[in-house]
């Protein structure tokens, strides 16, 4: 396994060197000089190799004594189209006549600013930047104090970088062992998220199935769990490295609706297999080849576990938390697939620690094989059906999912009636009651299985329209820029997709919190639905370095992006407000 992993990472890394040239630092990519002449101010913006500027991001201002935009009155070269964007591919040489300045506002001193944003053809987009120059008439050689480099101001702002950029920077600047240890810690934290929980019954059912014919030792339990976790980690690492190098949307790759439906059907098949209706086996021809080895039976089991672990990367997919996004940003910017891939692999191992403990514990504390396993296997079959519904929640309408959960609980209550002991009867009664409650909730229009009677019990069910958040949908960059231009308030853009579990958590929890609603009513709220992942969706995500939804982008009243407020992944109301209140 280690040799295979090393080979794959080295191969991808060497291949990526051909695809990803060296990415320039911001001060190398953009060099600005100001020259004051007798009649005008000359601004030269020299671009590094393979660097281009977004034409619509070039803004020229009189900053002092009064802020006035003069972009339209400066002769800027005609732009060209590149990669579906309108850009400047060559160095800029701009002239600002003194007559223009005096026609706007009379003064003996001006501060002139130029804002811009650019990208590298290698795929990296830089943060918005700007520089300014203090212009004093009668002084053709201004002192260093008179030259104000706004890039330094941007550097000050990076002290409050968003989580994703901080993690990407830590990969660039940190010691490899320290970086890997940090990502292992991130994985441990992510193991507490809902994305990992469904894998617990999957692994447990595998261990129970392996225990039917032989005693399960702690060593064997740990070994089976290790195979499962390594396979899951390998799948996620390969997907992450490919996403980082080629700019693919990892969410779309792992959360494609067709893939999720097929995987859900696999879990349904596994469930009915556990109910005893049939037995899933490898094709006979493959079994014959495997069984030719002395330990064929064991290898056959290992192959099945490895396949299940590999496919389980789909379950981990929704956790596009800052560590994952940071690693992908780092890979995309630097092309260093080796360190980025190792970081993702180690993070996945951290996420798998609870699963390894379950394997170790199951082997140590599991009773000997017997009739009790028949009942446990059926219970895991019910859990497998639950996992299938959980996966379909990213594809189907919320009301349909409510009915499916209700039917699962009611069907489980009827199915478990065959067990006559008092504990089984109590569990059956509880399942039946919960099933009825969910069914009633689904009829009432509820969409959250955790709050099935919300329509009857919550005072928020009668919220007035002005207490709800209203988002305006935008489809492309042009619509986004128009919406920002027309807004007289700060702006928040929400990247959303129908299959995104964390997006639904934001909607159902964070955006329904009273304090959050009150705060966001001060904003113009925009939503980009990137479910289809079409060319417009990809262009929007590329523009802001978004590797997958959910992601929230903010602008202040002056139409400037507030990069430090960027949010990736789910945030509860408290954390969300803490981030937003720092800048607004």
Describe this structure in words.
This protein has 4 domains: about 25-135, Thiol:disulfide interchange protein DsbD, N-terminal domain (Immunoglobulin-like, Sandwich); about 175-370, no CATH class; about 395-455; about 470-580, Glutaredoxin (3-Layer(aba) Sandwich). The protein has 25 helices and 16 strands. The protein has a 5-stranded mixed beta sheet, with helices on one face. The longest helix is centred in the middle third of the chain and has 29 residues, at about 220-245. It holds the Pfam family Thioredoxin. One of its GO terms (molecular function) is protein-disulfide reductase activity.
Give me the secondary-structure topology:
Elements lengths: L1 H18 L6 H4 E7 L3 E8 L3 E4 L4 E6 L3 E2 L10 E3 L2 E4 L3 E6 H7 L4 E8 L1 E3 L8 E8 L13 H8 L5 H11 L2 H15 L8 H12 L7 H29 L3 H5 L2 H18 L9 H7 L5 H16 L1 H4 L5 H13 L2 H15 L1 H13 L6 H21 L5 H18 L6 H23 L9 H4 L14 E2 L3 H10 L4 E6 L4 H8 L5 H7 L3 E6 L5 H9 L7 E5 L11 E2 L4 H9 L3
Parallel strand pairs: 12-14, 13-14
Antiparallel strand pairs: 1-2, 2-8, 3-7, 3-10, 4-5, 4-9, 6-7, 9-11, 13-15, 15-16
């Amino acid at each position: 396994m280690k040799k295979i992993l090393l080979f794959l990472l080295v191969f991808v890394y060497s291949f990526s060197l051909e695809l990803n040239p060296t990415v320039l630092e911001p001060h190398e990519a953009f060099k600005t000089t100001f020259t004051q002449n007798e009649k005008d101010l000359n601004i030269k913006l020299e671009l590094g190799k393979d660097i281009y500027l977004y034409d619509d991001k070039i803004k020229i201002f009189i900053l002092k004594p009064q802020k006035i935009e003069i972009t339209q009155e400066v002769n800027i070269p005609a732009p060209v189209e590149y990669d579906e964007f309108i850009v400047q591919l060559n160095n800029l040489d701009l002239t600002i006549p003194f007559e223009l300045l005096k026609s706007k506002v009379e003064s003996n001193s001006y501060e002139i600013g130029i804002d811009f944003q650019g990208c590298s053809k290698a795929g990296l987009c830089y943060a918005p930047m700007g520089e300014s120059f203090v212009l004093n008439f009668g002084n053709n050689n201004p002192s260093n104090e008179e030259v104000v480099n706004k890039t330094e101001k941007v550097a000050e702002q990076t002290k409050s970088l968003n989580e994703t950029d901080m993690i990407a920077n830590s990969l660039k600047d940190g010691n490899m062992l320290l970086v890997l240890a940090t990502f292992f810690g991130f994985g441990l934290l992510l193991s507490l998220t809902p994305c990992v929980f469904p894998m617990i019954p999957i692994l447990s059912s595998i261990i129970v199935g392996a225990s039917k014919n032989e005693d399960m030792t702690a060593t064997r339990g740990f070994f089976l769990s290790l195979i499962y976790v390594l396979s899951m980690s390998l799948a996620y690492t390969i997907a992450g490295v490919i996403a980082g190098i080629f700019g693919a949307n990892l969410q779309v790759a792992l959360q494609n609706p067709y893939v999720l439906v097929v995987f859900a059907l696999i879990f349904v098949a596994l469930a009915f297999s556990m109910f005893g209706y049939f037995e899933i086996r490898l094709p006979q021809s493959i079994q014959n080849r495997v069984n030719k080895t002395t330990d064929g039976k064991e290898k056959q089991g290992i192959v099945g576990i490895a396949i299940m672990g590999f496919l389980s990367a789909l379950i981990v997919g929704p956790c596009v938390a800052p560590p994952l996004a940071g690693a992908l940003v780092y890979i995309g910017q630097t092309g260093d697939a080796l360190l980025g891939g190792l970081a993702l692999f180690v993070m996945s191992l951290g996420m798998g620690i609870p699963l390894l403990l379950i394997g170790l514990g199951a082997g140590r504390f599991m009773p000997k094989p017997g009739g009790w396993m028949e009942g446990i296997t059926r219970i895991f079959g019910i859990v497998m059906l639950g996992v299938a519904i959980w996966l379909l929640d990213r594809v189907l309408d919320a009301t349909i999912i409510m009915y499916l959960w209700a039917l699962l609980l009611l069907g489980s209550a009827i199915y478990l009636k065959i067990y006559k002991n008092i504990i089984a009867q109590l569990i059956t009664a509880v399942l039946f009651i919960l099933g009825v409650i969910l069914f009633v909730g689904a009829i009432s229009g509820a969409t959250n299985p955790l709050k099935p009677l919300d329509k009857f019990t919550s005072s928020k069910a009668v919220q007035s329209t002005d207490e709800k958040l209203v988002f305006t949908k935008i489809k492309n960059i042009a619509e986004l820029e128009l919406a920002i231009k027309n807004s007289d308030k700060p702006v928040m853009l929400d990247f959303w997709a129908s299959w995104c579990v964390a997006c639904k958590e934001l909607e159902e929890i964070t955006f329904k919190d009273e304090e959050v609603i009150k705060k966001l009513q001060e904003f113009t709220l925009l939503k980009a639905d990137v479910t289809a992942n079409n060319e417009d969706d990809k262009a929007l995500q590329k523009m802001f370095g978004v590797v997958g939804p959910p992601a929230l982008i903010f602008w202040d009243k002056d139409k400037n992006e507030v990069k430090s407020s960027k949010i990736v992944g789910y945030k509860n109301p408290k954390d969300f407000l803490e981030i937003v209140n720092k800048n607004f």
